[in-house]
Amino acid sequence: MTSGIAKDSAQYPVLRHLQFSPIKQGEDQLIVLWDPSGLSKEKLVLPLNFFFIVQHFDGEHSLQDIGALYLKRFGEFLMPNKVEQLVTDLEQKLFLEGERTEAARQQARIAYRQQPIRRAAIAGRSYEADGVKLRKQIDGFFTSGEGPDFKPSENRSKLIKGLVAPTYDLKQAGPVYAWGYKELQECRQPDVYVIIGTAHAGLENFFAITDKDFETPLGVVPADRTILDRLKGPVPEFFDEEIAHQTEHAIEFQLPFLQTVVNKPFTIVPILSSFAATSLSDSTVWNAVDRFLTVLREAITDSGKTVCVIAAGELSHLGLRYGDSAPPTDFSFHRSMQRDLEMLKPVEELKPDEFARFIQKENDQRRISGFSPIYSLLRLVQAEKGQVLRYDRGITDQYNSTVTYASLVFF
Fold this sequence. Notes:
Layout: E1 19-25, E2 28-34, E3 43-47, H1 48-54, H2 63-74, H3 80-92, H4 99-114, H5 131-143, E4 162-165, H6 170-186, E5 192-198, E6 207-209, E7 214-216, E8 219-221, H7 225-232, H8 255-261, E9 267-273, H9 283-303, E10 307-312, E11 317-318, H10 330-343, H11 345-348, H12 352-361, H13 371-380, E12 386-395, E13 402-410
Parallel strand pairs: 4-10, 5-9, 5-10
Antiparallel strand pairs: 1-2, 2-3, 4-13, 6-9, 7-8, 11-13, 12-13
Helix pairs in contact: 5-6, 7-9, 12-13
């Protein structure tokens, strides 16, 4: 039983939900930290012994506790002035929870609400910022050696119900996106695209909706007011974290493909999601997820519009960058690939509970980051079958850390 007394954050620091990656500098291995939410634009490079320290900034270990753990791990005393300077650096970079970070978060929320549209955040980095060049780039993904061929789709006369696409960097994964969007280009196209993307920075409420139109170098994509307004009444809490959309790329990466292949006016419902398969055993998580998806399904039905659900997410994450103790080998990658394709069988069969159980049995050891959008798609679409179109992987660092992803289509 706890006393309920809040712990002093100066003595019990709490690291925010940051991402990290190992890097090499000469013979030294270092760790670079950054904020995937975009609240902080800073990066911090740490030696491994300092990375050990910040991994214990969880609000449960005091600085004194960490000093004892450090002595046991490295056989030397942790000088108080060094750890105090580390805490100061983290606070200044908004890497720790606390008053400074919360004030910045509130200011960012207000600024986002005041923006008339959601601006393109990744243009010029992961894809071309010029509209003409971007359209040429997207076309190139379709015609590349790794892209789909020109054979007509067997689904040309059917109404597409769902699509799974990656969220990986377009410059590398663009042809895999193209496999899914070629099906959309050739089939009977719906009026609305409910895009559920992975919130890579995490979410408190499992889902985050924004009602803003999205801008890309190809123009502005309008949000669907009918469905979004229908959601604001019964589930207003899922609009509370809309600031997550400001820098998240999962939805942004889908839009140039939609703008290129859809041949009629369309709208989107932009939703981010973040929950693990293992978390669904918690009744609080399950009830919140089920409630939201039930309301969303009713809103889609009540709109009377034809809808395609797009799940934007990746599959396995292997290697040092993602918490493994060693880089992946060819053997471990091919074993994971077999497991990925086995895991996607219940996805093709539209069996969300079996999909979740598969990952739960593995205890999510391969870190399936796209679970929540894919699971949500399976709960929402009224389709007969799904089909894996293409599967591939990307290498994310000098240590061969690997992300896998796929395109699937549902009719």
